[in-house]
Amino acid sequence: MKISSPLTLAMLAAAALSLQAEGPRYGVQGLVNIPLGDLKDFVDSKPGPGVGVHGTFDLGDGHMIRPRLDYSVYPEATFGSLKQSASNLSLGGDYLYFIAGKPEGLYFTAGISAMRWSFETKDAFSKVTSDTTKLGLAGGVGYQWNATVGTEARFLHSRIASGFQADALQAGVTIRF
Questions:
Q1: Confidence (pLDDT) at 77
Q2: Which pLDDT score is estimated for 11?
Q3: Which of 56, 70, 123, 140 is the right S-S partner for 154, CB 3.0 to 4.6 Å?
């Protein structure tokens, strides 16, 4: 079958979602981000909290799609008179695969997002801010304890510049309604 236009592809995707195993569910997540690599140096290894909202669409047989919006902030790091902080707003989607074939128990996840990064460096005389939007990639593992509560660990990668990568380990608790 040849797909001749983006409209045809969108219609097929909408039809596939209408055949899902259960209706969409929405939820929130609380996150802890442990910076790695260049981001770790920028924020002096300080972990950052995060929050988010998501929707889950069960496609059946252990397959799920999860659009999400997350916000994370890293506390201000002090290097003598210099202070630095970072934050990001991430809009993306994840694919989840549940080993049991239904949305419970152990699952693997992979995701892609657009990440809006904000970096700030200040001293007693000046303040420099930098904002950029970059691609973010994520992969991890989680466990859905019951229909409402789950836990997850993910590795996040986002290349800010050729010499700066904003990577992090993220641990989170998800609550679905």
A1: 95
A2: 61
A3: 140
DSSP for 24-84 reads -EEEEEEEEEEEEHHHHHHTTT--EEEEEEEEEEEEETTEEEEEEEEEEEEEEEEETTEEE
Q: What six digits make up the tokens of 172? A: 């989170």
Predicted pLDDT at 13: 60
Domains identified in the chain, total number: 1
Query: Is residue 84 included in any domain, yes or no?
Result: yes
> Does residue 12 fall inside a structural domain?
no
Expressed as residue numbers, the domain containing 159 is 25-176
Q: What is the pLDDT of residue 23?
A: 84
Which parts of the chain register pLDDT below 50? 1
Closest residue by Cα to residue 104 from 139, 67, 58, 69? 58
Position 94 scores a pLDDT of 98
17 is a domain residue:
no
- Strand 25-36 vs strand 48-60: parallel, antiparallel, or unpaired? antiparallel
Burial of 72 (0-12, 13-18, 19+ CB in 10 A): buried
DSSP tag of 21: S
Q: What is the CATH number of the domain that holds 43?
A: 2.40.160.20
